[in-house]
Amino acid sequence: MPETAPNTTAAGAAKQRTDRDPATRLGAGPGRLLVTVYGIFTVAAASRSLYQLIAQFDRAPLAYLLSAVSALVYGFITFSLVRGGEGARRAAVACCALELAGVIGIGAWTVVDPAAFADSTVWSYFGMDYLFIPVALPVTGLMWLRRARTATA
Fold first, then answer.
1. 114: DSSP letter
2. Other C-beta atoms within 10 Å of 115: how many?
3. Which of 24, 78, 140, 150 has the greatest number of CB atoms lying within 10 Å of its CB?
4. How far apart are alpha carbons 125 and 115 in whole angstroms?
5. Is the pLDDT score of 146 beyond 80?
6. What is the per-residue pLDDT for 14?
7. What is the rounded CA–CA span in Å between residue 126 and residue 137?
């Protein structure tokens, strides 16, 4: 039974160079800024929602659970941008689209029915408490991920 040799062919070497090439990494160049901002938002949303879920859950459970969901989405996008590769890019695109839908949906819900939320979430009023960064971030992320796709094509 023949043993499999390490991938030393020209195609394998080219693939390794492509994986390390800064132009094909999602977290390189302007992507570093996205990784930084998503990382900050992950920590901010996670710590805020964790505290609120533990100490104030009975006050506004829906708002605090939605903030926890936003922290998970931010964390997954951060991880995908750092990991890089086509699979991670696709996952990040899906999560950025989900994030944008969440910001628009929750933002519209808080405008139409403010009484539904006893306290604000990260996405309330389209991220007004966070200088509208939550609505700009997924748009910027989707633009960067689209550009990253065309750079590797």
1. G
2. 6
3. 78
4. 13
5. yes
6. 46
7. 11
d(CA 44, CA 26): 22
What is the sign of the dihedral through the CA atoms of 79, 128, 49 and 53?
negative
pTM: 0.79
Helices (H), the chain: 10-20, 30-55, 61-83, 86-112, 133-152
CA distances from 107 to 92, 94, 99, 135, 145 (A): 22, 19, 12, 9, 24
Structure tokens at 43: 């920590």
Quick count: other Cβ atoms within 10 Å of Cβ 134? 27
Q: Does 3 have pLDDT greater than 70?
A: no
What integer pLDDT is reported at residue 24 of this predicted model? 53
Q: 61 or 9: whose pLDDT is higher?
A: 61
How far lies 62's CA from each of 78, 92, 143, in Å? Answer: 24, 25, 31
Q: What percentage of the chain reaches a pLDDT higher than 90?
A: 61
Instruction: Quote the pLDDT of residue 9.
Output: 54
38-to-12, 55, 96 alpha-carbon distances in Å: 32, 25, 11
